[in-house]
Amino acid sequence: MLIGVPKEIKNHEYRVGMTPASARELISHGHQVIVETNAGTGIGFDDQSYIDVGAEIRESASDIFEQAEMIVKVKEPLSEERAMLREDQILFTYLHLAPDLPQTKDLIKSKSICIAYETVTSNNGSLPLLAPMSEVAGRMSIQAGAQCLEKSKAGRGMLLGGVPGVSPAKVVIIGGGVVGSNAAQMAIGMGANVVILDRSIDVLRRLDAQFGAQLQTVFSSKDALEEHVLSADLVIGGVLIPGAAAPKLVTEEMITKMKPGAAVVDVAIDQGGCFATSHATTHADPTYIVDDVVHYCVANMPGAVPRTSTFALNNATLPYIINIANLGYKAALENDQHLMNGLNVHKGVVTCESVATNLGFDFVDASDAINM
Question: In this predicted model, what pLDDT tens digit does every residue of 237-296 receive, in sequence order?
Fold first, then answer.
């Protein structure tokens, strides 16, 4: 199979779909890899790094999209990239379609085969291709939130961990999954007063066993959510419903009642965000103010640490890329129901039920769609 790796073009996005090491693995299986020039420079890999392992360099994204049977990316294709997708071409990347009607329409129109990292599942119910970026984003959320609390960023002027004789900031984390547990680890390490809310008692038990008395675990009722959000200095939104738009758990009224200079970091922004006042921002202009509350809603947070993020992502995606290339996408999907769950759009039909429900499209079961 001919696999293409275009350069990411989203604002301040330096990650790359495949490292030279990943390209070498594909080539060792008898496949061809073509890479857009300078695709890896943001993480320290020049074109020669890819040439040295047997990959070929192409001068433009149009060359990649025109020639490749499978496109491997990191972020969702932007409009100019979607216009280059071909019928029967495989796209393997993050898509986050539920809150993105224009992208979904374009992918349907392209009649390509679109497999989303974020809805591939595993035997234990986790999301193995989303997890590495959730780990990065969860840890980064505390770094970003700590900066948002600085007075120069319009925050309360607080040091997250305080100092002897001065209380630390109160950090409230909504959601105890991969994002939440990694955020808690960083916040506790920085000396903050940390509360985490979740609706799963099993999740709260796991977090209690992991962190003990350093973390306050709270069942997420409406009363508890409001109580802790209004008393927080920093709120991290890490709620996820796989494939679906994130629920708006923090209302505009709650934002209005928060402390002036408090900060919120919406890690769920790729799925539409879990704060009613959230809208996506970029690394170039990451924050905005609503009712004196600093909002950090960057839609590609891990892109700020692209080297770490790229290696973590490639570790997770490479086995799937190899299987798709070795077997062809149909056999790869039929042999692995968890990979089948990643199929969001197939040759003009929506095959992810959450996306279809959120955006009002007819849903076609993935196993039926690939045999139509």
Answer: 999 877 778 899 999 999 999 999 999 999 999 889 999 999 999 999 999 999 999 999
Both tokens of 37, joined, read: 């020039």
- Domains 2-119+306-369 and 131-299 equal at CATH topology level: yes
At position 73, the amino acid (one-letter code) is K
Q: HSE-up of 256 (CA within 13 Å, CB side)?
A: 3
- All residue ranges of the chain with pLDDT < 50 are none
Active-site residue, from 96, 295, 338, 346: 96
CATH of domain 131-299: 3.40.50.720
What pLDDT score does 9 carry?
95
Question: Does domain 2-119+306-369 sit in CATH 3.40.710.10?
Answer: no
Domain ranges (residues) in the chain = 2-119+306-369, 131-299
End-to-end C-alpha distance for the chain, whole angstroms: 23
Q: What is the pLDDT of residue 244?
A: 79
> Which is it for strands 90-93 and 113-116: parallel, antiparallel or unpaired?
parallel
Looking at residue 125, its pLDDT comes to: 84
CB 22 within 8 A of CB 321: yes
| E strands in the chain | 2-5, 32-36, 56-58, 70-72, 90-93, 113-116, 170-174, 193-198, 215-219, 234-237, 263-266, 287-290, 293-296, 343-346, 349-350
Contact 361, 350 (CB under 8 A): yes
270 classed as catalytic: yes
pLDDT the model gives residue 105: 98
Q: What's the predicted TM-score (pTM) here?
A: 0.90
Indicate which residue of 100, 198, 233, 270 is catalytic.
270
Question: CA–CA separation, 285 vs 274, rounded Å?
Answer: 20
Q: What is the pLDDT of residue 242?
A: 77
Q: Is 295 a catalytic residue?
A: no
